[in-house]
Amino acid sequence: MNIQWYPGHMTKTRRQIEADLKNVDMVAEIIDARIPVASRNPDIDAIVGSKPRLIVLNRADQADPAGNRAWRAWFQDRGYTVLETDAKTGAGVSQFSITIKEALKDQIARWREKGQVGRIVRVMVVGIPNVGKSTFINKVAKRKSAKAGDKPGVTRGKQWVAVDAGLDLLDTPGILWPKFEDERIGLNLAFTGAVKDEVMDAETLACHLMETLAERYPDALQERYKLELPPVSGQLEGLAYGYDLLERAARKRGFLISGGEPDTERMAKILLDEFRGGKLGRFTLELPESV
Ligand code: G4P
């Protein structure tokens, strides 16, 4: 699902989450491991408060392994439990229940002392669109559709989903939004396809992506498009550097329009598709240092 902006919904979603928090023991916040800053709702810490939190670094398969390690350490240093997953294949997902129960072991022991043996642990799942929340919930609950109620006996109540005999999930009602005001955050969401491409034309977005990759992952760019990266100095005005790279890549691919000019529009779409499809490699576009 792509993001569209409906401001009124955020207040409603926030109120609903705040009300539902009373019914859960932990919050699992799913984020996109490629963009761990941009893929978080800016108010999530204030909304969730002191409730124990699991950060699910989803799309870990698409992110740079060094980036995953750095972010895991960063979140753990701040008291969060962290799980790396690839919800598409299910890698890491089997650790979800064990990880939750380990994180809540003191709480579970207290329940037991009070005679609440076998009390079901309840976890709320939150995440902005496109982090892979539905895929994750389906995988963790071993079901095919994200719609609650599709499989009789599996769901308990409206948005509750049973993971195993001791763990229930509550899917967030409504939609949590990222922070749109910051240009870099908007770009990172657009690069990964979280924001509809109509928000910015593909060519401009691809120029930004070329510049971002040339700075962060020059080897991947050189290898994929057989580019000699020209020196950056003096070329950074108004995306000129990114446009130059787009033209070079289009020429290398033989994408030309009449008159022999490079077909930068076609190249832009290819770059975005290949980046999103993982053909260029694994990338982490935000590092903990940038927080
Ligand atoms: P959302 O609920 O958070 O909005 O996201 P959703 O689960 O719908 O996932 C969006 C897309 O991302 C889906 O691809 C899904 O398969 C893919 N995806 C989710 N998690 C991961 C992950 O950890 N790794 C990878 N590589 N992909 C992931 P799609 O193209 O919409 O569908 P499909 O082609 O997979 O069927």
Automatic annotation (TrEMBL):
<keyword id="KW-0963">Cytoplasm</keyword>
<dbReference type="GO" id="GO:0005525">
    <property type="term" value="F:GTP binding"/>
</dbReference>
<dbReference type="GO" id="GO:0006412">
    <property type="term" value="P:translation"/>
</dbReference>
<comment type="function">
    <text>Required for a late step of 50S ribosomal subunit assembly. Has GTPase activity.</text>
</comment>
<protein>
    <recommendedName>
        <fullName>Ribosome biogenesis GTPase A</fullName>
    </recommendedName>
</protein>
<feature type="binding site">
    <location>
        <begin position="58"/>
        <end position="61"/>
    </location>
    <ligand>
        <name>GTP</name>
    </ligand>
</feature>
<dbReference type="GO" id="GO:0003924">
    <property type="term" value="F:GTPase activity"/>
</dbReference>
<feature type="domain" description="CP-type G">
    <location>
        <begin position="13"/>
        <end position="178"/>
    </location>
</feature>
<keyword id="KW-0342">GTP-binding</keyword>
<feature type="binding site">
    <location>
        <position position="174"/>
    </location>
    <ligand>
        <name>GTP</name>
    </ligand>
</feature>
<dbReference type="InterPro" id="IPR016478">
    <property type="entry name" value="GTPase_MTG1"/>
</dbReference>
<feature type="binding site">
    <location>
        <begin position="130"/>
        <end position="135"/>
    </location>
    <ligand>
        <name>GTP</name>
    </ligand>
</feature>
<dbReference type="InterPro" id="IPR030378">
    <property type="entry name" value="G_CP_dom"/>
</dbReference>
<dbReference type="InterPro" id="IPR027417">
    <property type="entry name" value="P-loop_NTPase"/>
</dbReference>
<keyword id="KW-0547">Nucleotide-binding</keyword>
<dbReference type="Pfam" id="PF01926">
    <property type="entry name" value="MMR_HSR1"/>
</dbReference>
<dbReference type="InterPro" id="IPR006073">
    <property type="entry name" value="GTP-bd"/>
</dbReference>
<dbReference type="InterPro" id="IPR023179">
    <property type="entry name" value="GTP-bd_ortho_bundle_sf"/>
</dbReference>
<comment type="similarity">
    <text>Belongs to the TRAFAC class YlqF/YawG GTPase family. MTG1 subfamily.</text>
</comment>
<dbReference type="GO" id="GO:0005737">
    <property type="term" value="C:cytoplasm"/>
</dbReference>
<dbReference type="InterPro" id="IPR019991">
    <property type="entry name" value="GTP-bd_ribosome_bgen"/>
</dbReference>
